[in-house]
Structures are given as C-alpha cells and as structure tokens.
Fold:
Amino acid sequence: MKKLVLILLICGSSAFATTVAFSTSAVFSGPDASGGVLKNGTATVSFAGITTPPAPNAPSAPTNWNIGNFITSAGSGTFTNDSVALTITQTLPAHGTGTTSSTIHGTVTSSSNNIDISFSPTTLTIAGVNYTFQQTYYLVPSNSNGGATSLEVFISLATPVPESATLGLFGGSLLGLALLARRRGANKAPLNSQPSASLTGSEPPTMPAADQEKYRN
Structure:
C-alpha cells in the first residue's frame, strides 16, 4: 500500500516538469566587430550558440542549462567600447524570443583574459519561461578549456500552472489513492461485531417463558 501511494505521488508531482526547447545566437557590435566576431590585434572573441536536443534529452524546467560558449582565440588584443546582444529563440512550451546585452572591454593574451560579461537584463521571460543569467561571466584565456567559457543560465517557469494533460495525470493519481483507501477500508471487518437477524435470516434467541416469569418475580 505504501509503495503504491509513493509511486502515485511521484507520478503526479513529476508531471509538473515542463520541457523547454530553444536556440541561441549572438551579434557583436562596436569598433572591433568584424564578420560576426570581435577582433583586435591577433585576438578574437566569438560566440557559439546551441540548439537544445529533442526529448527526452531536452531540458525540463526548472534546471540549469548551458546556452552557448564564448570562445577566445589565441593571440593578444585590447577590446574597448564593444558589446554583444544575445538572443534566445524559444519553441517549447510556446514560441517567443528575448534579447539581453552586455558591454565587452578588456585585454586578452594567450595566457590571460580580463574580459568579464554582465548581461542586462539578467532575466529574460519568454512565453512563461524565465532564463536567469549569472551576475558576471569571466572569460577564460585560450590556454584554458580551449578558450571556451560556458554560458549557463537557470531555467524556470514564470507561472508554474500545469497543462490539461498534467492535471489529468495528477487527478488520476488522486483518484487512485482514493480507490485504494476505499478498498482498504472495505476489507477491514468491524471489531466485536455479531451477525444481525436480518443478515442470518433467523430471529434472535428469546428467553424461555419460565425463566422470564422467575426474573419477573
């Protein structure tokens, strides 16, 4: 009984997770923007966007997810007055887009990178889904992780209202619990009970007349 209740509760609660699908892209602007990247001296900064995989490997909100990578190439350069606009194009649970941006400035060498990126706004809400960015992302140099800096965000539901299919599954779980409880109660025989005359089909026993007369006197 306890195992069945636990299974039903898990099924009902897990149904509230929502699959999210999206892709990301970025556009650089400023004096160092060239051909879709930033280039200064012998250093470049680029962005590699992603497209989320199909179910069952797609992210399910709430979750943390990598939405792309900033890549710093080997070389040296100083970036000033540049910026990046990052766009998220969502397809599930509903279509929508959102864009956030950050300034880019700093010096890059083959072994150091003092560029940091702070997006504003820090949260994009797209068709009921929140994408919350970290306060600051610090880009790594080219000799660390191949120059790739992961851009991880926290994905959550702006208004976690279950869809009709979710409500149906959760309602079915509750109905299953109710039926189990009813069956369990029906199988319990009442304590100290005696069969009634109406159930046995015979009249209850009566005291002989002689005994009745003795007690009456």
Q: What stands out?
A: The radius of gyration is 34 Å. The first strand starts at residue 18 and ends at 19. DSSP finds four helices and 14 strands in the chain.
